[in-house]
Write a structure and sequence with these properties.
The strands form 4 sheets. Strands 2, 3, 4, 5, 6, 7, 8, 9, 10, 11 and 12 form an 11-stranded antiparallel sheet that branches. About 45% of the residues lie in helices and about 15% in strands. Helix 13 packs antiparallel against helix 14 and helix 14 packs antiparallel against helix 17. It has about 725 residues and is α+β, with helices and mostly antiparallel strands. The protein has 3 domains: about 290 residues, Thrombin, subunit H, CATH 2.40.10.120; about 70 residues, no CATH class; about 220 residues, no CATH class. The longest helix has about 30 residues.
Length: about 725
C-alpha cells in the first residue's frame, strides 16, 4: 500500500511539474487543465476564467496593435499594456518640443487623451473548434497542390461559409480568423471585434518605462515600470467607429479587479495573452538551421546597424525620437537571438530534441508504422536543401530590407510594372507609362520624404549594411547591384551609396522636385535607388524560388510528425497544446526564484531600492528621475508599499511566455490583476524551441508599482479613482 501511495504521489508530482509548460487553448481548459490549476492554487471556477457562453476574464483581455496584449482595467475602456507596446504611439505624438518619450505623458482629463492613428484593439468574442467542418470542406473542395489545409486564403473562405451556415452575426467591425493548429490537425475559428479609435492616456518617462534599456533587456533582476495606458472609444451607441471628436469611452462588458495584496514565493499565477510564435515541434536539424541562419543574421547584422544608429541618435534629439521605436524593435530580437543560441548550446537542447525524435521513431517502428520515419527523413532532406538560400535570404532581409528605411520607395512596384510595359519606341505608349509613373510618384512622394527626414543617417547605415552583407555572402552569389558596384564603382560600396543620395530622384527632395518638373522614363530606368531596390527584390525572389521546391513537401511531412508527437504525449497522459500563433492562450505556474548558475540565486521580486543602486546619471539607460528619487528618499509610497515598507517593482513567474505576451495580465488565484508581463529572462530564451521550467521565467511589473507611478509620481489620481481595487 505504501509503495502504491508513493507511486501515486510521484505521478501527481510529475503532472504538476508538467503544468508549468504550455500555451493552452482556452477551449481545452476544462478538460485538460482545470484540475491541475485548482491543485496549484486557482480559487475560482474555470468558467470564470473562460466560458463558451458567459462573460469571463477572457473578455477583458485584448490584442493590442496586433503584436502585444492589453487588459481592460476600468468600466470605461481604460486599457493597460506595456510601455514598449505603446512605444510607437508615444513616439508618434513626440517631438523635440513635446518629448513624451523622455518626459512621459499624462492626460489629466478626457479632452487631453490623444488619438493614435492606425492603432487598433481587438476583442475575442468567440472561440470555436470547427475541425470536423474544415475537414469535411477539404474532402469536397478541389485542392490540387494539397496545401489548402494551411492556406489562409482558403481558410478565410471556409470561415465565411461556416459563419453563414451557423448564422453568426457579422458587423463592419467583425473579423473572422480561422487558423490551423498542430500542423493542420485541428482548426479553431476566432470571431473578433476591432476598435480603431484608441487614445493615449498615460505613459511614464522612458527613464521609468524603459529603465535599463538594452543592457537590462531580457535580463533579471529588473526595475522597470514597463507600462502605458490607453482608452478605447466608440460611437454614442457603443459601436466601433473611426476617430471622431464626439466618440465616447467604451462601456465594456468586462474589466479586471486589481489586487494590492502583493505576491509571495510559490503563489499560484496565470497569464492570458497572444503569444506570437514558437517552434516546440521542430526536429534537431531545424533547430540547428534556426541557430545558423535567422539567429546568426539577427545577431551580427543588427548589431552592426544598431552601433551606427545609436551613435547618430546620441548626437541629435530629433534623430533619437525618429528612430527610437525602430531601434528598440531591432535591439529586442538582436539580444533574443544571442541569448537563444547561447541557451540552446548551454542546455543541450539539440541532444534533447534528438532523444525525443528517436523515441517517436522507435514508437512507429514498434507499431509497424513507417510514416514517422518518412516524415522525419523528408524534413531532414528539406532542411539540407534550403539551408544556403535561407541563409542568403536572411542576410538580404536583415541588411537590406529591415535596415534601410530609404529603400521603402513610393510604390516602386507600381512604377516597375509601368516601366515593364513600356512599348519600345512607341512614343504614345511611353507617354502613357510615364504618366502612370508620375501619378504614383506624385501621390506618394511627400509621404516618402516625410518618412526619411534624416538622409545622412540613412546614408551612414547603408554604407555599413552593404559592407556587412558583402562580408557574409560570397561575391558570385550577391544580389545584382554588386555587379554595378564592382564595375562602375570599382568595388567601392560607399561611393555607390553616395551616388544614390547625390543623383537618385529619391536622394533628396530637391532631386525629386527637379525630376517632376522635367520627367523622363530614361531617368527612371537608370535611377540608382530604383536599381538598388529592384536588385533587392530580385534577390529575395531568387532565394524564395530556390527554397520553393525544397519546401514543397514540408507541410505534409510536418503535419504527420506533429500528429505523432501529439499521439505519443496523449498515450502517456500528458496534456497537449499547439505552437503559438498569435491567438489567445493561457499559461500558468508559480511565483518562483531561480538559480542560473552554481552559487547564484535570483530572488522572485525587486524593489525600488534596486533602481537606486543601479542609478548612473551619466548613462542614459540608468537615469532615475528626480521626483522618483524624492519619493524614494521620503518613503512616500502610500498604500502601494510592501508590508516591510519597501516599494515593489517587478516579480517573476515560471509561466510559459513568448513574444506577443508583452502586456499580458497576470492573475492571482482569485482571478484578480497582480501584474503585467513584459519580458523573459536571458536564461529562458530557449523557450521558443524547448521549455525548461527550472530556468525559464516571465518578468512582470508589479501592479502596485504601476499604480504608485500613476498616483504618486504622475499625480493622475483621477485614473486611480476609476479602477476597481481590493486591498487583499
Amino acid at each position: 500500500m505504501r509503495k502504491q501511495l508513493f507511486i501515486a504521489a510521484l505521478s501527481l508530482a510529475a503532472l504538476t511539474a508538467q503544468a508549468d509548460e504550455g500555451m493552452w487553448m482556452l477551449t481545452d481548459l476544462r478538460a485538460q487543465n482545470a484540475a491541475v490549476m485548482r491543485e496549484l492554487g486557482l480559487e475560482i471556477p474555470i468558467e470564470q476564467v473562460y466560458s463558451d457562453n458567459a462573460i469571463s476574464l477572457k473578455d477583458a483581455v485584448v490584442h493590442f496593435g496586433g503584436g502585444c496584449t492589453g487588459e481592460i482595467i476600468s468600466s470605461e475602456g481604460l486599457l493597460l499594456t506595456n510601455h514598449h507596446c505603446g512605444y510607437g504611439a508615444i513616439q508618434q505624438h513626440s517631438s523635440v518640443e513635446h518629448d513624451y518619450l523622455t518626459d512621459g505623458f499624462w492626460a489629466m482629463n478626457r479632452n487631453e487623451e490623444l488619438p493614435c492613428e492606425g492603432l487598433k484593439v481587438t476583442f475575442i468574442d468567440r472561440i470555436l473548434d470547427i475541425t470536423p467542418y474544415v475537414q469535411a470542406q477539404l474532402k469536397v473542395d478541389e485542392d490540387p497542390q494539397g496545401t489548402n489545409y494551411l492556406s489562409p486564403k482558403y481558410l478565410e473562405k471556409v470561415a465565411d461559409r461556416f459563419a453563414k451556415a451557423e448564422k453568426i452575426e457579422l458587423t463592419p467591425a467583425t473579423r473572422l480568423e480561422l487558423k490551423a493548429f498542430y500542423g493542420g490537425n485541428r482548426y479553431y475559428l476566432f470571431v473578433k471585434t476591432v476598435y480603431s479609435d484608441i487614445r493615449m492616456v498615460g505613459a511614464p518617462p522612458s527613464s521609468i518605462g524603459k529603465f535599463g534599456a538594452d543592457t537590462d533587456n531580457w535580463m533579471w533582476p529588473r526595475q522597470t515600470g514597463d507600462f502605458s495606458l490607453f482608452r478605447i472609444y466608440a460611437d454614442k451607441d457603443g459601436k466601433p467607429a473611426e476617430y471622431a471628436k464626439d466618440n465616447v469611452p467604451l462601456k465594456v462588458k468586462k474589466h479586471l479587479k486589481i489586487n494590492l495584496g502583493g505576491i509571495e514565493k510559490n503563489d499560484f499565477a496565470f497569464v492570458m495573452g497572444f503569444p506570437g510564435r514558437n517552434w516546440r515541434y521542430m526536429i534537431s536539424d531545424e533547430v540547428e538551421e534556426r541557430m545558423q541562419t535567422t539567429n546568426f543574421m539577427r545577431h551580427h547584422v543588427r548589431g552592426d546597424r544598431q552601433e551606427v544608429l545609436m551613435a547618430e541618435m546620441l548626437k541629435d534629439p530629433a534623430v533619437r525620437i525618429h528612430y527610437a521605436s525602430k531601434y528598440a524593435s531591432s535591439a529586442n530580437y538582436w539580444k533574443n537571438a544571442i541569448g537563444m543560441n547561447e541557451g540552446l548550446v548551454r542546455l543541450g537542447v539539440l541532444d534533447t530534441k534528438r532523444a525525443q525524435q528517436e523515441k517517436l521513431l522507435a514508437r512507429g517502428s514498434e507499431k509497424g508504422d513507417n510514416s514517422y520515419q518518412q516524415a522525419f527523413d523528408q524534413i531532414r532532406s528539406i532542411v539540407q536543401q534550403r539551408r544556403a538560400p535561407l541563409y542568403h535570404q536572411q542576410a538580404i532581409n536583415e541588411a537590406l530590407v529591415t535596415a534601410l528605411d530609404f529603400m521603402k520607395l513610393p510604390s516602386t512596384k507600381e512604377v516597375a510594372v509601368a516601366l515593364s510595359k513600356k512599348g519600345g519606341k512607341d512614343s504614345q505608349k511611353e507617354g502613357e507609362v510615364l504618366q502612370k509613373a508620375l501619378e504614383v510618384l506624385q501621390k506618394n512622394g511627400e509621404k516618402y520624404f516625410a518618412s526619411v527626414p534624416f538622409p545622412e543617417v540613412e546614408r551612414a547605415v547603408a554604407k555599413k549594411m552593404l559592407k556587412t552583407y558583402a562580408g557574409y555572402i560570397p561575391q558570385e552569389e550577391r544580389i545584382s547591384i554588386f555587379k554595378v558596384i564592382d564595375t562602375r564603382f570599382k568595388g567601392d560600396s560607399d561611393a555607390f551609396v553616395d551616388a544614390c543620395f547625390k543623383y537618385s530622384i529619391f536622394g533628396s527632395k530637391e532631386n525629386f522636385d527637379k525630376f517632376m518638373r522635367r520627367p523622363s522614363l530614361n531617368t527612371l530606368e537608370k535611377d540608382w535607388m530604383l536599381l538598388f531596390k529592384y536588385s533587392i527584390t530580385d534577390g529575395l525572389l531568387k532565394t524564395a524560388l530556390a527554397m520553393e521546391q525544397a519546401n514543397k513537401n514540408y507541410d505534409a511531412a510536418h503535419k504527420v510528425w506533429v500528429k505523432g508527437m501529439m499521439d505519443m504525449k496523449q498515450e502517456n497522459g500528458t496534456p497537449i497544446y499547439p505552437d503559438a500563433n498569435s491567438t489567445l492562450r493561457l499559461t500558468y505556474g508559480k511565483v518562483r526564484p531561480y538559480e542560473p548558475a552554481d552559487g547564484v540565486v535570483y530572488d522572485y521580486y525587486t524593489t525600488l531600492k534596486g533602481a537606486m543602486e543601479k542609478e548612473d546619471p551619466n548613462n542614459w539607460e540608468f537615469v532615475v528621475p528626480a521626483k522618483l528619487k524624492q519619493l524614494y528618499q521620503a518613503k512616500d509610497f502610500g498604500r502601494y508599499a510592501m508590508k516591510n515598507g519597501e516599494m515593489p517593482v517587478c516579480f517573476i513567474i515560471d509561466t510559459d511566455n513568448t513574444g506577443g505576451n508583452s502586456g499580458s495580465p497576470v492573475f492571482n488565484g482569485k482571478g484578480e490583476l497582480i501584474g503585467t508581463g513584459f519580458d523573459r529572462n536571458y536564461e529562458g530564451l530557449t523557450g521558443d524551441i524547448a521549455f525548461r521550467p527550472s530556468s525559464q521565467r516571465a518578468a512582470c511589473v508589479d501592479i502596485r508599482y504601476t499604480l504608485f507611478i500613476i498616483d504618486k509620481y504622475a499625480g493622475a489620481s483621477h485614473l486611480i479613482d476609476e479602477l476597481d481595487i481590493v486591498a487583499e
